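We examine the record.

___
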Amino acid sequence: MTAFDKAQQNDTPPVSITDEDVTAEDFLVLSPDRVRLVAEALDANDSNGVFDVVRTLNNADTADLIEHLSGDHRNGLIDLLHGSLNPEVLAELDETVREQVVKRLDAEEVAAAISGLESDDALEVIEDLHEDIQQQILQEIPTEERVILEDSLSYPEESAGRLMQRKLVSVPEHWTVGEIIDFLRSEKDLPQDFYDIFIVDPKHQPVGSVPLSRVLRSERSVRGPDIMETRIKPVEANMDQEEVARLFRRHNLISAPVIDPEKRLIGVITVDDVVDVIDEEAGEDIMRLGGVKEEDFYSAFIDTTRSRFTWLLVNLATAFLASFVIFQFESTISKVVALAVLMPIVASMGGNAGTQTLTVAVRALAMKELNPANLWRSIGKEFLVSLVNGLLFAGITGLVCWWWFDWPEIGFIIAAAMIINIVVAGLSGMGVPLILERLNIDPAIASGTFLTTITDVVGFLSFLGLAAWFLL
C-alpha cells in the first residue's frame, strides 16, 4: 500500500480543497502572507499550522506555494505532505521544482500519483525527469498504463504526441444520437473533461466531430453523421506543439484529434493544454532573448552560473571587437576629447533602434507572420522607419551637440553617424534573425548578441571615421 492509498484511510484532510471563506482575489495569486505563515509553521514544527493554510489552497496554488518556498522549507513541506499531496499538484509544478519534489518521494509513491492523472498530465510529470528516475517510476506503474506512457515518450519532445491525451470519446459513424447518449451514460472509463465526440470509420480514422452541446440538443433518432462537423483539423502526432497552438488559434478550436501515420485516431488535444503551450513558448522566447534557459529561475546557482557563462563569454568577445574599433582611432580621440564624450550616444541609439526591430522580427518569425510573400515589404518598411527616425534624431542630437560644444562640425558629424547607425540597426534587426533561422539557429537565442556587435561597431566606426576625416 502506497502513501497515497494510506491517505484515503487516515484522518489527514486533503491538501487541495477549496475553503469557502477564501476570497476570489486569493485564487488569482498566492498571498505572500500565506507563504510566510507556512515557512514560520515549518520552522516551529507546527504541522497543524501548515495544514491550516495548505488545506485552503487549490492545486495550482499548492504548486505555487511549493515553488515559492526556499529549499529547506520546500523539503520540509513535501516531507510533511507525503501521504496527502494531491497528484494534480505535481502536474502544476515547474519542471525543475518537480524533479526536486519527486526526489523526495518514493518511486512507488510517484507511480501511484501518476496513475491517478490523465495521460497527458501523467506524461508531463514524468517526461522531464532524469532518465534513471524516470525508469524507476515506470517500473512501478501498472503494465497497461506504462505501455501508454512509453509509447507517448517515443514521440519527439514538444510534439503533439507528447501533448495529447489518450483517453477520448469516439463512436462509429452509424450511431444515432440516442446511442451516443446511452454510451456516455453507461461507459465508466470516460475522460474527466471532454468537449467533442469524434466520429470514426471502420478503420478508426476520424471523419468528423460533434460538439457535446449539439448532441444534447439533438433528437435521439438523428444519426451522428447528420450533425457532425466534417471539416475537422486532425493533428499529426509528430507535429510541433507551436504548430498545434497556431492551428487552435487560427481555427478557434476547443479540441482536435491526433492521428498516427496511418491516419488512425490515437488521442486528443484540448484547449487547456494549448494555453499551457502558448504560455510556455512565450516564456521560452523571452528567456532566450536574454540568453538564459527556461528553468533558470528555479535552478541551483551553480547550474544558473554555468548556463549563463557561455553567452556572457560571447558578449565579452564582441565587446573586445568594438573596443578594437575604438582603438584604431586613439589618436583622433586624444586630439578631440569631445568624441569620447559623444560616441556612446551613437552606439546606444543604434542598439535601442535595432532591438525594437529585432523584437518585432523574432516574434513575426515565431508566429509564422514573416514569410517570403511579405519579406521585402517588411524590410522596406523597417528601412523607411529607421531612415525617418534617424533623420529626426540626427537633427535633435546634432543641434544639442552644436550648442553644447559650440562647434557646428561636431553636430553635423554626430548627426550623420546617427543616421547611418540607426538605418543599419533597423536593417540588421530584421536581417540577423532571418539569417540565423536560415542557418537553423534559434533567432531568439543568438540575435541580440550579433545585433549589439553590429550597432556598436558601425556606430563607433561611422562616428570616429567621419570625425577623423572632417576634423583632422
Remarks:
- Residues 120 and 165 are 5 Å apart (CA to CA).
- Residues 1-28 have pLDDT under 50 and may be disordered.
- Residues 375-405 form the longest helix (31 residues).
- The chain has three domains: 3-154, 170-289, 300-471.
